Amino acid sequence: MNTAEEEVAGLCSDLIRFETVNRGEGDALPERPAAEYVAALLDEAGAEPVIVESAPGRASVLARITGTDPSHPAFLVHGHLDVVPADPAEWSVHPFSGEVRDGCVWGRGAVDMKGSLAMTLAVVRRRLREGRRTRGDLILAFLADEECTGEFGSRHVAREHRGLFTGCTEAISESGGFSVEAGGGAAGGGAGRRIYPIATGERGTMWMRLTARGTPGHGSKPAPDNAVAEMAHAISRLASHRWPVRITPGVRALLDGLAEALGTTIDHDRLDEEARRLGGPGRLFESTIRNSANPTRLEAGYKVNVVPGTAHAQVDGRYLPGTGEEFLATVDRLLGPKITREFVNHEEAPAADPAGPTFAALAGALRAEDPGAHPVPYVMGGGTDAKSFHRIGITSFGFAPLLLTPDLDYLGMFHGVDERVPIEGLRFGTRVLDRFLDTR
Question: pTM for this structure?
Fold first, then answer.
């Protein structure tokens, strides 16, 4: 076993023990302690990292490692140091223990995405110790604040440290390269085949704050202009809306790739039913065949017998590439004229080329370590720091390679209880990542 495989699980455990919890809207524990840990590991291997802060404690680690060919394009590997909250009372182990149990590393961030950071650290450290450089410069970014808007992390770095990314047009980051095993039985097709989705895009983001205004008054009197009631009706209309299916080029490529890999046909006119039929592989497209607008927060009033003059709500909106105007027009129609909206966060939907050489290299690295691998292009339902780098001309692929056991609900691990990652999966990922970097 090589050094990267030997140390990756320990690095993952160590990173989980840093409680870099991000509750959003500036309410976060500082990433600085984790950033210092990462920087020390990179510095020990000779990478000469720097720590940059966007606000006190909101720290990111950056490094640019010189390649062997100054004329070759640089390549970026980025990931985030922060995690979402976790309630210890809901977990089988303490979420920030980094405990190793049943062949897995447990804790908040194991899959999202401190396990991936551990793989990157282990591989880069090994390559530096052995004097193996990528052809072009290798840029590393371990970032703050991905679990909110990235304003304290990727946005700050892309805006204030743009020079670091000179000559770089492509990157890899989270949410792709993991194995999904097809279920048994004739209905699903392709029983036992391992699908590896490589993210080539993601839905755009429209987080909105809604406001209803009415006439304040006593709670015992008629209130025909009640802001709370108006907001409740509007939110009900939005939540119950059935968004139409839209098959974008990225999703079509995924559907075609799945059909080929599984040896089946996928009926594009019945995609909800097809997602259920295919099981695990079907989950790869169930959230990216339509737009969505989920109400997530409500706020109004201060006393039970007072009708408030305003009511507020927040909505997590996600839209497919090319559907932004349609999405907003539908939202406005559903909300009605008495509701105003403003953006909390608005990001375009980035996309990468599934037919290009970088996708081919990512797929090749997977097949080299797993001859049974079936890589397919994949569009993410959520969002990542790829959006910030998209703004400065860097295209990101979702690629954090893991070979998983069929019983592990990997997609359910994201922001879920008892988040964990198999140690053997991490070791597999280090081998794949090392192979891929040889192509850069």
Answer: 0.92
